[in-house]
Amino acid sequence: MSKPIVLYGHATGPNPWKVAIILEELKVPYTTKFIDMADMKKPPFEALNPNGRVPVIEDPNTGITLWESGAIIEYLVQTYDTTATITYTSSPERFYVSQWLHFQMSGQGPYFGQAIWFSRFHEESLPSAKKRYHDHVKRVFYVLNKALEGKQWLVGDKWYVHLVWNGEEELSFANDAIYSTIADLSFVTWDLMVPFIFGDDTGSLELEKNYPNYFAWNKRLMERSAVKKIAKEKTEAAAVHG
Amino acid sequence: MSKPIVLYGHATGPNPWKVAIILEELKVPYTTKFIDMADMKKPPFEALNPNGRVPVIEDPNTGITLWESGAIIEYLVQTYDTTATITYTSSPERFYVSQWLHFQMSGQGPYFGQAIWFSRFHEESLPSAKKRYHDHVKRVFYVLNKALEGKQWLVGDKWYVHLVWNGEEELSFANDAIYSTIADLSFVTWDLMVPFIFGDDTGSLELEKNYPNYFAWNKRLMERSAVKKIAKEKTEAAAVHG
């Protein structure tokens, strides 16, 4: 039994909760410490992360202190996912996992973050800036929807067979080794922010109609017990600390 | 001798040039194909990358097609840097390399990119949005400057000794295994955009005075032959195609 990892997080920020999902998936013990925004960009927290942001982890089992959620997730699977339950160690799959993780880190998180900023927090209303980032968020839906055509998960399930049962043809997956990975799981917590980004306009996105593959994939992810648990905790933490 | 990798790039976009630096460092043969912005978000290019962006690589030696510059860089070092000349395979160093690569991908590239957008391309002048991203760029300088205190490179050189020579004390590095890695090299091509972001205000940044560790580190990087070569090619390509 490993000693609990310390996860520095925040009640509402999506990136620490993203790490929490991975810790839950891997059943790695951890404790969460919430840091107030006002305390992030100064000592003592800045000594843990010169970028003054969460998440940061401290792992007493290896002595490592690490920040950047993408790097933390890679560390966790390389250290604790020894049977590769939520990643791939085979090639080319492991490089595709890295590709989607980097897209989440550079293409989803920052744009969703700017969309939140100009929708909710900027000092003045700037409709053209807000529109820019709302459009970027929709583009992320488009990219994921396109990549998921005929697939359950972003990486791994490219082999499928047609099963015929009682005369009904059904698409099924031939490869037992198909499963969701950190490539999929890393998108969840920013996706939870969509109603906060679009507010009253959320319904008009018509996600199920316009991005059906994305919508179904997101639903599959939300049904996982680790994701359900963290989504609930995030909602509760936001109500108390948010 | 491996067959040349195809690198899909763009004359002015920093991310493909970032990959080119790594290919040069590793002496991996490659050919560059420039894609016009107008052709990125539609077939046939969109079939290579559903995100409709460069860089993308096609490696005939492994059959892989890969996008996201961070993932491409990880692929290149894992496939072609078998003696770890610009990365680490030891722990914890390899996780710190990943941390800084993710910071570059999520914390430098996107913010520098937004700073360029609101300084140069947005449909209307929005001073408060421009200021937001100029401040973010300066914050990246601050974070790097802080992290580089007493260090040559972002990862690896934490052991140093004081040498005394003719009564002069000098800080020197005790570990032969200290070298620049993809953690450092990945920042270069966005840093080259700083004058484009700040225009006439670039001088008032006073980089050497305000961020001396960052400034010296950037200078060390710019002296590497691979970086020199690509910086020159980038300038020439921008003059012809930009």
Specify the CATH class of the largest domain in chain A.
Mainly Alpha
Low-confidence stretches of chain A: 158-163
**CATH fold description of the largest domain in chain A:** Glutathione S-transferase Yfyf (Class Pi), Chain A, domain 2
Q: What is the radius of gyration of chain A computed over CA atoms, rounded to a whole number of angstroms? A: 19 Å
What does this entry look like structurally?
Two copies of one chain form a homodimer. With 242 residues, chain A is of the alpha+beta class. Chain A has twelve helices and six strands. Chain A has helices at 14-25, 37-40, 45-48, 69-80, 93-121, 127-147, 182-185, 188-191, 194-198, 207-210, 212-222, 225-241; strands at 5-9, 30-34, 56-59, 64-67, 160-165, 168-173. A four-stranded mixed sheet of chain A has the order 2-1-3-4, covered by helices on one side. The first copy, chain A, has a two-stranded antiparallel ribbon with strand order 5-6. In chain A, α1 runs parallel beside α4, α1 runs antiparallel to α12 and α5 (93-121) runs antiparallel to α6. The longest helix of chain A is centred in the middle third of the chain and has 29 residues, at 93-121. Chains A, B: Belongs to the GST superfamily. Chains A, B: Residues 90-240 form the GST C-terminal domain.
Concise structural overview:
Chain A has helices spanning 14-25, 37-40, 45-48, 69-80, 93-121, 127-147, 182-185, 188-191, 194-198, 207-210, 212-222, 225-241; strands at residues 5-9, 30-34, 56-59, 64-67, 160-165, 168-173. By secondary structure, chain A is α+β, with helices and mostly antiparallel strands.
